Amino acid sequence: MMSDGIPIDSHQEQADIPQAATRRTFARVVIGGVGFCYAAAIGYPIYRFLNSPVEKAALAAAVTEITLNDAQKLPVASALIFRFGPEPCLLIHLPDGKWVALSAKCTHLGCTVQYVPDKNHIFCACHGGTYDPATGHNIAGPPPRPLKQFVVKEVTDAAVVVSRT
C-alpha cells in the first residue's frame, strides 16, 4: 500500500492502532466485569450468612433492659408485643394480676406467637404450637423447647421495666 507516495506495511498499520481500542481488549474487560459481578452476587450472600450470627449476638448483647412506657395500663388478660433488641417479645398481664415477659419467637421454626386470652395460652399459628403464658413451657404441638423468659423488674405508674436478668 502507498500513502502519499510512501509504502506502508499492513502490519505497521495495525500496530498504529492503540491497544485499548481493540475488540479483544473490550471483550476481556466486559467478561472480567461480568465475572466480578457474578462472584459478588455469589459471595455477598455467603458473607451475610456467615456474618449474621455475629451481628445478631452483638445486637442482642447491647440491650440488657427496656422500659415500656404506659405498659402498666395494659388490661388484665391481655398482652403487648415489643422488641427487646432484635427479638420480638410479649409482655403479658395474666388474669391473676402477675406480669410475665416472654420471647414471642416460636422455638419450632421462629414464627411470631400470640397470646390468646380466651383460652389463656400462647399460640403459634404456623404449626399449632401451644405454650403456657405463666411459664412459657410448651404444652402442645411441635415446639421442642419453652419460650425464653425475661424478668419483669418493676411495674410503676409510669412504665414497666423488662430485663434479661
Describe the structure.
The mean pLDDT is 82. This protein is elongated. The N and C termini lie far apart (91 Å). 28% of the residues lie in helices and 32% in strands. Strand 11 (149-155) and strand 12 form a beta hairpin. It is of the alpha+beta class. The longest helix has 40 residues, at 23-62. It has 2 domains: 10-62; 65-163, 3-layer Sandwich (Rieske Iron-sulfur Protein), CATH 2.102.10.10.
What is the CA-based Rg, rounded? 32 Å
Q: State mean pLDDT (0 to 100 scale).
A: 82
CATH H-level homologous superfamily name of the largest domain: Rieske [2Fe-2S] iron-sulphur domain
What general form does the structure show?
elongated
What is the CA–CA distance across the termini? 91 Å
List the helices and strands and how they pair.
Layout: E1 2-3, E2 6-7, H1 10-15, H2 23-62, E3 65-69, E4 78-84, E5 87-93, E6 99-103, E7 114-116, E8 121-124, E9 129-131, E10 138-140, E11 149-155, E12 159-163
Antiparallel strand pairs: 1-2, 3-12, 4-5, 5-6, 6-11, 7-8, 8-9, 9-10, 11-12
What's the gist of this structure?
28% of the residues lie in helices and 32% in strands. The chain contains 2 helices and 12 strands; from the N terminus they run E-E-H-H-E-E-E-E-E-E-E-E-E-E.
List keywords for this structure.
single chain, 165 residues, alpha+beta, Rieske Iron-sulfur Protein, 2 domains, six-stranded antiparallel beta sheet, four-stranded antiparallel beta sheet, 28% helix, elongated
